[in-house]
Amino acid sequence: MIKVFKLFLNRYLPVHWQDDFFDLANAQELDAQVALIDDARALLRRSSGRYDGLVALRGRTEKINPHHTPWEQGYQVARTLRGRLGLGTDPLNSDAALAGAFGIPALGCVSIPDPRARKLFDGMVDTDDGERPGFLTTKSRPEQVRFAFCRGLFEYLTAPGTPSALVTVARTDRQKRNRAFAAELLAPADWLRKRINDSWVSPDEVDEWAGELGVSPEVVDRQIQNHRLATVEGFG
User: Is 217 within 8 Å of 206 (Cβ atoms)?
Assistant: First the structure.
């Protein structure tokens, strides 16, 4: 029975997606959940090909070394990419700003705010031709969509092999890397450092900076805490 299910799974779900899938899957609903992801992936692949400007960038981006600390690697790729694109620490606080930074006409991230899918994954990236990607998310708020897009972008740019991935809330190294990348790309630690002039910051300041950066307050809080920039009073 196990062998039969593995054959079924390999038909519909890439092998390198499976650890992340099983981390959140419900054992009683595996068939339905695999079908849900497969349907989302088919929709995504039909929408791929809008991002020609990312293909060359993928060729110039360093690939992942699994022996490095995952979050530090995510941070470093984001900083290198910002430098390469001449962004400095400028906020990418709208869909247009983010698309413009990467030379693509629009963000164009397919959104399927399905509560069943939301329990399984935040987003995915895949290609129909092996080169040009498509991005999909289960998120609906603009700042969440941009964050999910950036997590998928990291996987597309840095994958040493097939540029596709499932983006989830799992705590695997893969997910730690793409979360760190998205956080540093959208809320650079250096941008926050210039605005912190004490050993602590207030929730109001976190909210203000999140608005300027176009991210959720949780992203700003994590950046401040993870980079040891200050203590956030009474937050989280």
Answer: yes
Give the length of the chain: 236
**Whole-number Å distance between alpha carbons of 134 and 112:** 14
**Contact indicator for 104, 54 with CB cutoff of 8 Å:** yes
Taking the CA atoms of the chain, what radius of gyration do you get in angstroms?
18
C-alpha torsion sign, points 206, 210, 215, 216: positive
Give the separation between CA 207 and CA 213, rounded to whole angstroms.
10
Residue 63 DSSP symbol: P
b/e burial code for range 6-38 (CB count within 10 A of at least 16 → b):
eeebeeebeeebbebbeeebeeeeeeebbebbe
Backbone angles phi, psi at 232, to 5 degrees: -90, 110
DSSP 228: T
Q: What is the pLDDT of residues 141-167, one digit of tens each?
A: 999 999 999 999 999 999 887 788 999
Distance CA 24, CA 38 (A): 16
CB atoms closer than 10 angstroms to residue 111: 15
∠ CA 236-114-159, nearest 5°, is 75
Q: Can you tell me whether residue 123 is helix, strand or coil?
A: strand
Cα–Cα distance, 148 to 137 (Å, whole number): 6
Tokens of 199: 């050993």
Which two tokens mark 97? Answer: 């700003």
At residue 200, the 3 state secondary structure works out as strand
Structural domain boundaries of the chain?
2-186, 188-236
Chain-centroid distance, C-alpha 39: 20
Predicted TM-score (pTM) of this structure: 0.90
Structure tokens at 157: 């740019």
Give the pLDDT band of residue 210 (cuts 50, 70, 90): very high
